[in-house]
Amino acid sequence: MSLHSPLAIAASAVLLVSRALAGQGTPTVPPVRLSPANATHPAEFTVVAGMRELSDGRVLVTDEKDGVLVAVDFRAGTSLAVGRTGNGPGEYRQVGRLWPLGGDSTLLKEPFAPRWLLLRGVEVVATLGPGDPTVRAVGMMPIMGSDTRGGIGVVQFGRDASGRPTLDDSLLLVRVARPSLRVDTITRLGSPTQWERGAGVTPSPPAVAAAGGGAPAERRYALGLQVQDQVAVFADGWIAIARTDPYRVDWCAPGRACAIGRPLDTTRPPMSARERQAYLQAMQQMRGWPPTTDVSAVSGWPNVIPPFTMPSQRIDGSAVLAMPDGRLMVERLPTAESRMRRYDIVSRRGEIAGRVLLPFAERIVGFGARAVYLAVADADGVERLRRHAWP
Fold this sequence. Notes:
Layout: H1 6-23, E1 37-40, E2 48-53, E3 59-63, E4 68-73, E5 78-81, E6 84-85, E7 91-92, E8 98-102, E9 105-109, E10 116-120, E11 123-128, H2 133-138, E12 143-146, E13 151-156, E14 158-159, E15 165-166, E16 171-177, E17 183-189, H3 192-199, E18 221-222, E19 230-233, E20 239-244, E21 247-252, H4 273-286, E22 298-299, E23 320-322, E24 328-331, E25 341-346, E26 352-358, E27 362-367, E28 371-377, E29 383-389
Parallel strand pairs: 6-7, 18-22
Antiparallel strand pairs: 1-29, 2-3, 3-4, 4-5, 8-9, 9-10, 10-11, 12-13, 13-16, 14-15, 16-17, 19-20, 20-21, 23-24, 24-25, 25-26, 27-28, 28-29
């Protein structure tokens, strides 16, 4: 094999990343290489928010930016619109992630409304609003996942003196049981505001106006990192919580107290000038925000590099995925030493069992029974769904 072949270059990149991570207090972990793609669907998307593989091989896909729900058939290369935009039965104003309910039943909650769609296969079989007891129990709070035991994981915000939701204090993770409506508090979650205080994030200063009171003399951007504990709910009722400080994964078995995981990174690497530059360059390729690579034009930098963040361009996003084998996948933040997308695979023993490295244009969006699905962006930012076999 030539030293300049793609395989040799990829192997060298994996080795460099492993060495760099080992020097940051993270044990060296084996790289997990995806098998060659076995299918790419021609349907075009702007921002794939969620996907759900059905038993017949078709895949439900939501696009947050375009606000559509479609079913794609890899074998036929076709796509079918599911439901439509509106406020009536089988209609929706926004789409987000898709939650399996057992078999081919799926739940779609509108991100900013107490409105649910229940699907069986590729058909909407029920549209539920605030009059439904379960919808009313969940309310406007975001859903983190569902299990086949009838449980739905929900994050509850705190409230200020006026009763409005606030992120100043810790959040509550609760499980709402269908159809009994029993609500169990699982644990507390760190909020973005709590992380910002611990990371030394200062409020962004106002833009400086030009002479004469015109437009700002120069464009400035607020970084707006949203860093908070992340939650994944598994089909068997287990819940994984990826913690931010220190970076670890806690596991919560049904009916038992959560087991605190061991730290997966023993350092708090500083957000140096080099790391700030690397972050802006990565975001330009991954998300397009902030729309600059000038570090001095961006405010709101933390003192340390967070282990992961909420996707900034998403209205219903997460840094974690529940894998079908019971492990958790965590999308880490790119660093100057690892200029690739990187995903940690964390076992229920709280250990990193492997790491997937991908180009910035490729993003893991979900799993099927024996497949992993990627949203792959072309040079124009158009995403297409690509499928790889997964053991």
